[in-house]
Design brief:
about 900 residues; alpha/beta; eight-stranded mixed β-sheet; elongated
């Protein structure tokens, strides 16, 4: 038993990932199975044509494990709640609350316990953390509900019981399974027998069109990708048409799907938001660790009361801590999430809102994002390459009368329903026979009885195969009507053949899949028609198919580019189709890097070239993720949009991963944002909202950092020269609380239009510079207030300290609150730019409360006293001077540093 367990573990973790994300052992096994005959495959997997016995299946299940892939689930509500409290500022506040609890409560004399600091700090911590928790928990629940995972079964052949429906988790290597149209392939398997099998691999490779699969052995090529093997089907892909019997090779995490799934489980990379917040947090913490001890020591030495100095230092620490930052950030992000949910966007991780605003490179998959994810008949041309309705009519008759499951190409032809009544397809054309499609011929034909009694064979298929069967071609009629008699028929000579091939190549270069349509008329006969009758055909023309660009894609790409976001296409599809779509949607490119070329480049070489390359095609999933990481290493904030398993690793590594509700589960699990509609215009709104959100966050940080720095600068000077504290700890806390309340309305503020036009990122150095230049301006007017109170109003002794403290309390609060309006815009506040109504209302209310407080019943509790009315003209002069100087310094600062917020 122990050896079986060891063997299982070894099997599960063995292998090093190759460039495609599949581990080497699993890839080698697929290639080996692909090169074997049917008998060789059965022998290799210890099974038989009748399937595994129940006993063998049980042994294989123990050895290889259940057929399930690892995937990431939303953390439990408790983990999400704990994570909401993990934030550097919340940590500082909790330390301050603990110190205050010890100093003001536990060690205080009976009856002198003071809970104000503890309660105030505790409330701020709880509001901030709970707001974040509720928003993220709600979004994660919405995302979980979107998955709607259901039990899936497969038809398995077992030796004891014959054909049976089995839960796909119990399928094991060696099982014989049956596949038919509409089935999801439950594991990586090798085709043993097939008939007209087409499989959609779009979720793995990004290719729009289904690929043909057959049972023929494929010679072993050491460097080839398993995805190119025509006799191997992969877990998670689905059968579009046809039927097959297959043998299971790999299950669970050993499958291609499972290897990719496993590669994206674990800790996520730090995003632009995380790095930015951490840098800013540590900048402010470092600043605090210098200033607070300095103020404590100066006060202790000057006043001689070390206990009072410690209480004052704690109050200063609270004042210096932007304790509202987590709440302001969360409130901004939560408001953004709610607004975006109304626009059919689910935000799973709140930080993604700021990241989408900072995004300067947007990488997108092609299929379904830039394209309709639907094959349409794009062109129907005669032999001269001109649009011709007659060719469409022949194609329609062929597609309409074929039986069995219609291919995506047939469905595209049948979209032209307007022809149905016009041609009277059932009345004028009765089906007599059909020669179905097969992989060797790569064509199919229907035989119809016409009104004139003659039989009409209409054949469509691949260009080379069809051209070999055509001996003549129609010269198109001027009226483009459906007829045979009146159109001239010319021999198919070498020049004509070359023209046909040239037109076909040209259409291929435009990204179209091209088929030829040809006809042949027969006299009525009784015998059935066969492949032998598909000769001496008359070529009518070409039909070209494409998964076309979405009508909205070009305008959306243009809108993102105008917002300073570079758009790059990362696709698994071929470069010809990708070039065509990129041209259609307005993505300009000089060169295309293919997956094979990418593998030859080192990260340094790719880093040098990546900014100049807009299109990368034939990429494996891990190559997409590598491109994202290289862009991030150059300092870009990268967004990635995709919906397949091949996009999951890149979605996870990007700063903001965007998916859609129709995406595979693993892609939705990896994404930060889920769109309920595949519309890039929604993204444009998201980018603008992200920038507005970031702008409001950065406003708060710069306001608070510069204001706090100015206050501490003032405190430092006052502490050194005054014979009493310039402000009592309780006054400092109340002033700080009122100022913080005035900031609560910031999430509702507007941003200047110019701010929204370019990507915005965290810049700790910029914040430090802003703080050092703008902060001391308030200190100039604080010192003016000190001089006013000290010399004019004679509040220059401990007996009159209450008057001094009241004077600075009002001036400090009003100047701090006014700075909100000065800093929020590059323009002149109240003249060129007004804040949003909630901001104006709340800041006005706080200023009014600050002025009234010394005259209110609360004055005695706070040890404030009413100020003489002669103080207020001086106050107006000081505040006016402060606003004018700040505006002048602002203009100079913008000129010198070319930035403001």
């Amino acid at each position: 038993m122990l050896s079986t367990v060891k063997k299982t573990i070894r099997y599960r973790i063995a292998g090093i990932n190759n460039g495609n994300g599949l581990n080497e052992e699993a890839a080698a096994k697929l290639k080996k199975a692909g090169s074997h005959t049917t008998e060789g495959c059965l022998e290799m997997l210890d099974t038989s044509a009748e399937g595994l016995s129940a006993e063998q299946a049980a042994i294989h299940l123990r050895r290889y494990g259940v057929n399930e892939v690892q995937h990431e689930k939303a953390p439990s509500w408790f983990r999400q709640l704990v994570a909401a409290f993990i934030n550097p500022f919340i940590g500082i506040l909790l330390i301050i609350a603990i110190i205050s609890l010890i100093m003001d409560v536990w060690t205080a004399a009976p009856g002198e316990q003071d809970y104000k600091t503890v309660v105030m700090v505790g409330v701020m911590v709880m509001v901030s953390a709970l707001l974040r928790f509720f928003q993220e928990y709600r979004s994660n629940r919405a995302a979980e509900q979107l998955k709607g995972m259901v039990k899936t079964t497969a038809t398995v052949l077992r030796k004891d019981s014959g054909k049976q429906e089995t839960d796909i988790s119990h399928i094991v290597p060696g099982d014989i399974i049956f596949l038919s149209a509409g089935d999801m392939i439950p594991a990586d398997c090798r085709i043993l027998h097939s008939k007209d099998l087409f499989v959609s691999q779009a979720m793995l490779t990004g290719e729009s069109l289904p690929v043909e699969k057959n049972h023929q052995p494929v010679p072993f090529v050491p460097g080839a990708s398993p995805l190119d093997l025509e006799n191997i089907c992969f877990m998670g892909t689905n059968v579009v048409s046809g039927a097959a019997t297959a043998i299971v090779i790999n299950t669970g995490n050993q499958t291609y799907f499972g290897s990719l799934s496993k590669s994206i489980v674990g800790n996520r990379a730090e995003t632009s938001f995380d790095k930015g917040v951490n840098k800013v947090s540590y900048l402010l913490i470092r600043f605090m660790l210098i200033m607070v001890p300095l103020i404590f020591i100066i006060n202790g030495l000057v006043k001689g009361d070390w206990m009072e100095a410690l209480l004052f230092a704690i109050a200063v620490a609270v004042g210096l801590t932007p304790e509202m930052l987590p709440m302001i950030v969360t409130a901004n992000l939560a408001k953004g999430a709610v607004t975006m949910s109304k626009r059919k966007v689910i935000v799973k991780r709140l930080n993604a809102i700021q990241n989408i605003g900072a995004m300067d490179v947007f990488c997108t998959d092609k299929t379904g994002t830039l394209t309709l994810d639907k094959i349409v008949l794009e062109r129907h041309l005669n032999i001269f390459g001109e649009d011709d309705e007659e060719v469409l009519k022949w194609a329609y008759l062929n597609s309409y009368h074929q039986t069995g499951l219609k291919s995506l190409l047939d469905l595209a032809v049948l979209e032209h329903v307007e022809l149905h009544d016009y041609l009277r397809v059932e009345e004028h054309f009765q089906k007599i026979d059909e020669i179905p499609f097969d992989f060797q011929r790569r064509r199919m034909s229907v035989v119809l009885n016409q009104q004139n009694g003659k039989h009409l064979l209409i054949c469509k298929g691949a260009v080379e195969e069809m051209l070999a069967l055509c001996s003549q071609a129609f010269l198109p009629g001027a009226d483009k009507d459906l007829h045979i008699e009146r159109d001239a028929i010319v021999p198919m000579d070498a020049a004509m053949r070359e023209r046909i091939l040239h037109t076909s190549r040209k259409l291929n270069e435009e990204g179209l899949r091209v088929l030829l349509v040809a006809i042949r008329e027969f006299e009525p006969r009784e015998i059935t028609y066969s492949v032998a009758d598909e000769k001496d055909l008359v070529l009518t023309g070409f039909i070209g198919f494409l998964d076309p660009a979405k009508p909205s894609a070009k305008a959306s790409i243009e809108a993102l580019q105008q917002l300073g976001v570079a758009v790059k296409v990362l696709t698994g599809d071929n470069d010809i189709v990708t070039r065509k779509i990129c041209r259609d949607v307005g993505i300009s490119f000089d060169r295309v890097i293919l997956g094979a070329e990418l593998d030859k480049l080192t990260d340094d070489q790719l880093r040098e070239q990546i900014d100049e390359v807009a299109v990368l095609a034939k990429l494996s999933p891990l190559q997409k993720a590598r491109v994202v990481r290289v862009l991030q290493s150059k300092g870009h904030t990268v967004g990635f949009m995709g919906d397949g398993i091949n996009d999951a690793a890149a979605l996870r590594d990007a700063d903001v991963g965007i998916s859609v509700d129709t995406a595979v589960d693993i892609a939705k699990e990896s994404a930060d944002i889920i769109l309920l509609e595949k519309d890039l215009m929604v993204l444009r709104k998201g980018v603008i909202y992200g920038r507005r959100t970031f702008g409001n966050i950065i406003k708060y940080i710069k306001m608070t950092a510069s204001s706090n720095f100015g206050n501490m600068f003032s405190m430092l000077g006052a502490s050194a020269f005054l014979p009493f504290l310039p402000m009592l700890p309780v006054q400092l806390l109340v002033q700080n609380l009122l100022y913080d309340i005035s900031q609560v309305s910031i999430p509702w503020d507007k941003m200047d239009e110019d701010f929204l036009q370019t990507p915005r990122k965290w810049d700790a150095a910029g914040i430090q510079r802003f703080m050092l230049w703008i902060g001391p301006i308030s200190s100039i007017f604080d010192y003016a207030t000190f001089g006013l109170m000290f010399w004019i109003f004679k509040a220059n002794s401990p007996a009159h300290q209450s008057l001094f403290q009241s004077g600075w309390f009002i001036e400090g609060l009003l100047s701090q609150t006014l700075i909100v309006h000065m800093i929020r815009t590059r323009q002149i506040p109240f003249v060129q730019s007004w804040a949003a109504a909630p901001v104006v209302a709340l800041t006005s209310l706080i200023m009014l409360i600050g002025i009234i407080l010394p005259f209110s019943p609360f004055a005695t509790v706070l040890k404030l006293e009413p100020l003489p009315f002669s103080y207020f003209p001086w106050l107006i002069a000081i505040l006016t001077g402060y606003c004018v100087l700040t505006q002048l310094v602002k203009k100079w600062y913008i000129r010198k540093f070319a930035e403001w917020l």
